[in-house]
């Protein structure tokens, strides 16, 4: 499932073929994904110029010159497939449509962008750009972890007195937007905090120390995504999934990476999701 860094990577991959470009034709091949598409979506996209791409939490936002914004949510398995565009001296041929290409944007410049989503947990919606903060998927989101509004004061205040495990508290999208299971595991390992520890019982000093760790973990993952993007350009035009070297996530039973620690990484299930941690390094 794509998390914030993966979404940032997809956004970066879409920018050269979308930003400043006109959507010559939009194809909408079914009425819905996770939720119904907005009314007349194809007509509202066709002929519009994309004036900018942004990310909010795990959503990609494409501002159109019609004063509307297209929201793209990759969901569990959504992929953006780009073809027909020039990369250096090489042109990926425009791909024929394949199964699960639910929405297709043919750009005036020749690129084809297909939103392919086998499991259909993804979504697209259109909203007035100046009313985006009121959109139901956006209005309750906390601050961006890499933005100025997310700081030590905010995090300490939001976690004070909370009786929930720190793992769940950091996954609460009203506390901080866009943090998901994988990166919360990595953050707690780096902070030396056990995922089951109650948020309200952790000292303000240790909570405050989470802020730069969250920023570092995400920034490093975005940088890794950027390098995967450079590789992708030589390959098949599929955006969004790349392998990181995680320190705990997905490493159950493997050695802890901390020098001098001889423990194995453990996995527990919290709120239906796997938490990976070192029982020695995280208290
Ligand atoms: Zn350890």
Please, could you describe this protein's structure?
The chain is of the alpha+beta class and about 280 residues long. The chain folds into two domains: about 5-135, MutM-like, N-terminal (N-terminal domain of MutM-like DNA repair proteins, Alpha-Beta Barrel); about 150-275, Helicase, Ruva Protein, domain 3. It contains six helices and 13 strands. It has helices at about 5-20, 40-45, 150-160, 165-170, 180-190, 205-230, and strands spanning about 25-30, 50-55, 60-65, 70-75, 80-85, 85, 90, 100-105, 110-115, 125-130, 240, 265-270, 275. The strands form four sheets. Strands 1-8-9-5-11 form a five-stranded antiparallel beta sheet. A four-stranded antiparallel beta sheet has the order 2-3-4-10, covered by helices on one side. A hairpin with a 3-residue loop joins strand 3 (about 60-65) and strand 4. Helix 1 packs across helix 6 (about 205-230), helix 3 packs across helix 6 (about 205-230) and helix 5 (about 180-190) crosses helix 6 (about 205-230). The longest helix has 29 residues, at about 205-230. Zinc ion (ZN) binds near residues 261 and 278. Its cofactor is Zn(2+). One of its GO terms (molecular function) is damaged DNA binding. One of its GO terms (biological process) is base-excision repair. Pfam families: Fapy_DNA_glyco (PF01149), H2TH (PF06831), zf-FPG_IleRS (PF06827).
